[in-house]
Design brief:
Layout (H helix, E strand, L loop, with lengths): L3 E4 L2 E12 L13 E2 L11 E2 L7 E4 L2 E11 L2 E5 L1 E3 L9 E8 L6 E9 L2 H4 L6 E6 L7 E9 L6 E9 L8 E8 L2 E6 L2 E7 L13 E9 L1 H4 L11 E13 L1
Parallel strand pairs: 4-7
Antiparallel strand pairs: 1-2, 2-18, 3-8, 5-6, 6-7, 6-18, 8-17, 9-14, 9-18, 10-11, 10-17, 11-12, 12-13, 14-15, 15-16
Length: about 250
């Protein structure tokens, strides 16, 4: 697959398309591209991530739909979906771009992010983490980008990030992207760069020169999502993804 990256009708020279999912076939996401996280995974979140359950993850009308529901599935009060490319696709450097419409509501926590493929071996934060987009329902007009990395041998970690104050980002689709270079990460909202993290040699934590995989998930509650409380009456919530495209330098 070869093509130029285009944002807001403007071609971005030097980037060639190497991987994509346009979500044009209704049903379950392509199993050659996506796998599932299953269970209560992290951050004391309230949702249970289900495995290959269309009520939580499906493709319809040209979009990936990740739906968080209060449906008491198998005695799990709240369910949602988290899909990833681990074991199916990974990249070292590139432009990772996702066009998505995020939900909002007190407790909502949608994300687009990456971790090192060596996570199972090294654990977190030694594997490194790149958060391309996060949004929490108690700050609905803020879009966050963050990098997480270790600072020492005892798995202490450091987080450095930035935010874009947007106008109702949950109201429509927007393009969230990172341009990942050998010594810098640049984060974008609809083509506007709003945060950069550069390897200045001051931290042990430059873990971003190795293969990473991509995750898309909709959490509810948790250490950040519930820090101002949750409102279960906002459920169900739908997180829509129009496409995922990965470009690399020619």
């Amino acid at each position: 697959m070869i093509g130029l990256a285009v944002v807001a009708g403007v071609a971005l020279q030097g980037w060639n398309l190497v991987w994509q999912d346009e979500f044009n076939v209704d049903g379950r996401p392509d199993p050659a591209k996506w796998g599932y996280e299953v269970g209560y995974i992290r951050n004391n979140e309230l949702q249970y991530y289900t495995d290959n359950r269309p009520e939580n993850v499906r493709v319809e009308n040209g979009n990936l739909v990740i739906e968080c529901r209060k449906d008491n599935f198998q005695e799990k009060p709240i369910t949602s979906g988290s899909i990833n490319t681990l074991g199916k696709a990974g990249w070292t450097y590139g432009r990772i771009e996702v066009r998505a419409k995020i939900p909002t509501g007190l407790g909502s926590w949608p994300a687009i992010w990456m971790m090192g493929v060596d996570r199972a071996k090294l654990g977190w934060p030694l594997c490194g983490e790149i958060d391309i987009m996060e949004n929490v329902g108690f700050q609905p007009d803020n879009v966050f980008a963050t990098v997480h990395f270790p600072t020492g041998v005892r798995r202490e970690h450091k987080s450095i990030g930035g935010k874009k104050v947007a106008s109702r980002p949950y109201h429509d689709f927007h393009i969230y992207a990172v341009e990942w270079l050998p010594n810098r990460l640049d984060f974008f909202y609809d083509g506007e760069k709003y945060f950069s993290y550069e390897n200045d040699g001051r931290h042990l934590g430059w873990r971003f020169n190795k293969e990473c995989y991509l995750l898309l998930n909709l959490a509810f509650g948790g250490t950040w999502g519930a820090s101002k409380g949750v409102d279960e009456k906002v459920l169900p919530l739908k997180y829509l993804v129009d496409y995922v495209r990965v470009y690399q330098r020619s």
